[in-house]
Each structure stands twice: as C-alpha cells, then as structure tokens.
Amino acid sequence: MQTIQAHELANIIKPESRVFVTGSSNEPVGLLEALVGTGEAVRDTTFVQFPLPGLNRFDFTALNSSVRVETFFMTPALRKAVDPSRISYLPMQMRYVYEYLRRSPLDYTLVQVARDREGQLRLGPNADFFDAVCESAKIVVAELNEGFVAAAGAPLVPETTIDYVVETGRPLTEMSLSKIDPVSERIGALVAALIGDGDCIQTGIGAIPAAVLASLSQHNDLGLHGGLIDDGGMALVRNGNLN
C-alpha cells in the first residue's frame, strides 16, 4: 500500500480505462475531486457506479468529452449531466450487479476506507460490491478518510488489497431526511396497518417509505431487508422494533 498525494492520481489512471467508483455514503469524494481538470488522464475512460439518488451527484461526463458512464441506478443528477447521451443504464438486481462486476474486467477501483478505534482498516458505511470489484480490478486506489471512525462491524480491508492510498479528512456525505407530507403520512399509516408482528419488510428511499417506517413504532419482532438502513430504520432498531 503506497501513500500518494491526491494530485498524483492523474499519473496513475491511464486513458481508455474502465474505473469502478464506490457509491452511496462511501463515495471517495477526495479522489473524484482530484480528477477534475485532469483531461487527458481520463480520455475515453468508462466510469462504473451504483449511485444513490440525492447523495451521489458527481458528473463524470464533465471530466472529458470522451468519458462514458455505466450506471445501475438512474438519478436526477445523471439526467442533468453535461452529456446524458454518454450514460448507459444497466438495469439489474443488486445480486446480479455483484456477479456482473466480479466477472467484468476493471482497470481501477476507487474506494473510501477508514480506521476503526483499534487502527484496523475497514470499509466505510457502504460495503455492497467491494469484494467483487477488488477481485476484478488491476489496481485499487483508496481514499483513507480520517474524518470519521469506521464502524466495528464494517468489513476489514487487508492493506495488501490496496495498491495506492490518498489520506484525507472530511466528514461523511449525509443523506437529507425525506420530508413526510400529510398524503405520504396517511399512505404510510395504511401500509403499516397491513404489516404484522414478525413480518419482514423491504423499503426504499423517499417520503412514502419513510412514512411507513415512522408508522411501525408499535410493531414487534420485525425483520428488514434492503439496500440501506436510513434514519427511519435506525429509529426502529433503537426502539427495539427490528431484530
């Protein structure tokens, strides 16, 4: 694991490459900012990401007029890109995204990591496809963010997995709370009435899912399956509604 400065990333990434960038709150913002203005370094490069609406807004198409993007999730930010015609949407379930990335050749993986209280290197708050993209990438570049402490239960990252590391210190990107309007609140209450104790639920993001979770505070022994646990889910965990 070799420590480099952020501006040196442009010397590592070569034109005509295929680069996976972790998304959600684990997006390596410091690495992406280092690519702005590099021009030739990312010529004819394809960036691959599973972005989260409202959280990941980086416009890869603005880096170079030849850059292309592969995404597994369409977001408002992608629609507003400098050139949306260079964005390819690949619709598939998250389980199949993992297999797709594991079998797809990647030149680079850009990821964010942090140290826990014992100093061990771990992933940040998003750990969706890390094993797959590290297996298929030739080079792994990590942003070691000293702005937060990794959770004890986050996956450990062997330092031998990382080729280059850029040290930064910035707060984690936070997702704003969904505003629950009266209509969403009513829908959430109606949906919650259909859910019984011991049921397993799956939710997404937005006002209605938030309203459903907010209406489950009197339920017990619930299970939750989903791509993320937001504030509503955490409230149920802390309240003892979710097991």
How many individual domains? 2
State the CATH class of the largest domain: Alpha Beta
Q: What proportion of the residues is helical, as a percent range?
A: 25-40%
- Quaternary form: single chain
Radius of gyration: 19 Å
Strand share of the residues?
15-25%
CATH topology term of the largest domain: Glutaconate Coenzyme A-transferase
The SS-based structural class is alpha/beta
Largest sheet: 9 strands, mixed
- Strand segment count: 11
Highlighted features:
two-stranded parallel ribbon, Glutaconate Coenzyme A-transferase, Transcription Regulator spoIIAA, 243 residues, alpha/beta, 21% strand, globular
Gist?
Helices cover about 25% and strands about 20% of the residues.
Describe the overall structure.
With 243 residues, this protein is of the alpha/beta class. It folds into two domains: 2-168, Glutaconate Coenzyme A-transferase (3-Layer(aba) Sandwich); 182-239, Transcription Regulator spoIIAA (2-Layer Sandwich). It has eight helices and eleven strands. Strands 1, 2, 3, 4, 5, 6, 7, 8 and 9 form a nine-stranded mixed sheet that branches. α2 links the parallel β2 and β3. α4 (94-103) runs parallel beside α5 (130-136) and α6 crosses α7. The radius of gyration is 19 Å and the shape is globular. The mean pLDDT is 90.
